[in-house]
Amino acid sequence: MMPAFDLRALPAPPRRLVSAGLLLAAAAVAASMGLDYALGQLAFVATFAIAGLGVVLIVGQAGQISLGQGALLALGAYTQALLARLGVPPLLSLPLAVLLAAGGGWLASLPARRLGGLYFAMSTLAFALIVEELLVRWSGLTGGAAGLPVPTLALGGLAADSAGAEALVSVAALALAWFACRRLLDSRTGRAWRAIRADEGAAAASGIDCARSKAAAFVAGGALSGLAGALYAHWIGFLSPEQFGLMLSFELLMLAFIGGARHLAGALWGALVIVAIPQLIALLRDLLPAGLGTAAGLELLLFGAVLVAVVLWRPQGIAGK
Amino acid sequence: MLGFLQVLTSGIAIGCIYGLVALSFVLIYKATETVSFMQGDLLMLGAFAVLALNAGAGLPLALAVPLGLAGMFALGAGLERSVLRRALGQPHLTAVLLTFGLGLMLRGALTTVPAASHSMYRLALPFGDEPLRIGSLALAPAHLAVIGATLAVAALLTLFFRHTRAGLALRACSENARAAALMGVPVGAMHTLAWALGAGLAAFAGLLLAPVTFVHLNMGLIALKAFPAAVLGGMTSLPGALLAGIFLGVVEALAGLVLPEGTKDVVPYVLLMAALLLFPGGFGAALGRGRG
Prior knowledge:
A: mainly alpha, two-stranded antiparallel sheet, 14 helices, 72% helix, 2% strand, B: 13 helices
């Protein structure tokens, strides 16, 4: 039986201190593992942060819940990969990937938009499971469970074939997405989201079309996931359906939860933590006794423990207030 | 025709398992407003617990089953007391992340046991593998056992919720926790009871599943099908969840007969999305049935 511990007694970290600590850790990683490694990780952090922005819009701004973000990433990734294999230039294929994932977000949220709350979790979950099954079964197109190799991102003579170029493209895409989100949050839609989050009844009484605004949040979240997925496909170089399972959706939720879903910056901090956790777990493994450290399932156990500890520490999210 | 009847029986049997897991999910959701994403892991752990007691410790099945279920009951209660209580009154996201994390811990911890991760196991049945023959119809005893046991559990639960003090208190607490508290119902204890029952039911479903499939680390994936069942049942109805589970099992089995290979696994999720669009209150509300 687990002891009745109370992590809530621990104080919340001051934001500046955490930011400084994370940056310091990132610098330490760059110094010890080499610049190329650090730039490669930076590409992943920026890519995950784009997907995290989508979760921040849905969870933090509109106050809804989505368990299907992983599948939306998959839609973006597979669209981009298949188009790139056909030789379609990224200036055309990236918008298509974003569009398809946005459509997926719309479709996933459609059944629940009048019900709200938990029903969004259910319908996005069902959508994600359908997409995952399709990716496996439609093997003529997607390569099925065997996977699909992805060519390097290239436009004309320019190719993102080094870690530095990957990082540059990701950071540029993140900056664009960030700018778009800022604009969106300051717009009528963004205000509608915050109103719905605070009190849906009052929002409806003030003339806000709640169902439409919620759908807009899922469409925007889908579009950002699609962009992240398309870039991720190139950085990872090889797609298979199980990369985009339920685990990824939960990782993205956890990302927003850790970073703080109320602020756009939460997506960035969350992404940093999510990319760092597997490395941290690898470090922890080395500290454990030899027989225990190599056991299968330990990563699952540690990841679960981190998740539980984070939630128990701050049930409302770390930077939530 | 005979093949159809056999498919129907196996569909009902699998549906009973979906229904039982959905029942455990709805029971917890109704009583504590907490969404549990760990029912599949509890299901798997329950099957492994009984297996360990039976094959590992050499206890007879008649002793291993009640002991294993009691252990899972206690685990559910303990988790509620120590951890899950913290998710009360928080947004759904908190409970979803917390239970998912706990589920990962349970699955990860079990995976570290080499004996559990290296092979699949079959729980020895007390009534053998010989199919029951009625004329030329052959029915698998495992399927019949699942159906019989589900009926028995449904009857027991009905008695519990209608005629015992604890059952009535649990129902009162699910309907309106504040009013129940004012009437002297110990709401905290009822939350513990709901989680204990939820864990016990999930473990029981795992036990029933064990002879049908094998006991292995991924058997908890079947619990994903419990979400469509819970939604089709209207999210707050216990009999609705069980019936919707059986309905899904049958539809899935029939879809396997008619639709191309591989599409049948998608059917419950398509039904979930269609049901939300067409019958947002669940099929039960559409039929105008009372709540249990």
